[in-house]
Amino acid sequence: MIELRDVRKTYHNGVTALQGIDVNIQQGEFVYVVGPSGAGKSTFIRLMYREVKPSSGDVVINGHNLAEIKEKEIPHLRRGIGVVYQDFKLLPSLTVYENVSFALEVIEDSPKKIRRKVMDVLDLVNLKNKARFKPDELSGGEQQRVSIARAIVNNPHLMIADEPTGNLDPDTSWEIMKIFEEVNARGTTVIMATHSKDIVNTLKKRVIAIEHGRVVRDEQRGDYGYES
Ligand SMILES: Nc1ncnc2c1ncn2[C@@H]1O[C@H](COP(=O)(O)OP(=O)(O)OP(=O)(O)O)[C@@H](O)[C@H]1O
């Protein structure tokens, strides 16, 4: 469960990105975050994994208040959260398999168990046959699937995605959305910032619209609500 209470964020340069956000998200929900460019969507979702620290207010994730946790507790928090970016952020010198295994928390796992976990998520994103490929040998959609595999390999309770289909063509975007729905169906909460009118209006989910740093709309099975 995620709870934001009167969250405000002013960056060092004086820009106020969020001004008084109150939102609750239950475990297992699928939420789109929409709104015009510069509205505060990325800031909103980066709060969840403490990439951004609120200037005031509370961000509570599964009982932990991120405004109060110590720096040394941040890795533990992030272990439960998978993040997917618009530009994939894969390590170019590593293979597909290595990009995923690199993210795996392996403290107590045997090599056999590690291999099984990595191959299981590569299977989920349909890339088992490209485990030995390097990122530059893959299409954009395949690279994004690797990044999803990396995000879910630790079985996170929350997956956050900042415009995950922003660099992909429409067909590939639908493939990515199918995987997101599959991840969500397994119980992971999904929060996705997007500018895709088509996706939001077709795969209906909860929609939180942000404008000028405030939530202006929060609807179950909502519409995108803007011209694309
Ligand atoms: N690291 C930062 N330092 C200073 N200002 C920032 C920083 N990140 C974002 N901002 C500013 O905060 C405001 C909100 O930005 P944010 O990236 O959250 O918007 P967004 O809705 O995600 O936009 P887009 O749809 O274009 O990605 C903008 O005015 C932006 O310039």
UniProtKB/TrEMBL annotation:
The keyword Cell membrane applies. This is Cell division ATP-binding protein FtsE. Signal peptide: none annotated. Its main location: membrane. Part of the ABC transporter FtsEX involved in cellular division. Keywords: ATP-binding, Cell cycle, Cell division, Cell membrane, Membrane, Nucleotide-binding. Gene3D superfamilies: P-loop containing nucleotide triphosphate hydrolases. It comes from the Bacteria. Homodimer. Forms a membrane-associated complex with FtsX. GO terms for molecular function: ATP binding. Belongs to the ABC transporter superfamily. NCBIfam families: FtsE. InterPro entries: AAA+_ATPase, ABC_transporter-like_ATP-bd, ABC_transporter-like_CS, ABC_transpr_LolD-like, Cell_div_FtsE, P-loop_NTPase. Pfam families: ABC_tran (PF00005). SMART domains: AAA. It is a peripheral membrane protein. It is found in: Cell membrane. Residues 2-228 form the ABC transporter domain. The keyword rRNA-binding does not apply. One of its GO terms (biological process) is cell division. The gene is ftsE. It comes from Salinibacillus aidingensis.
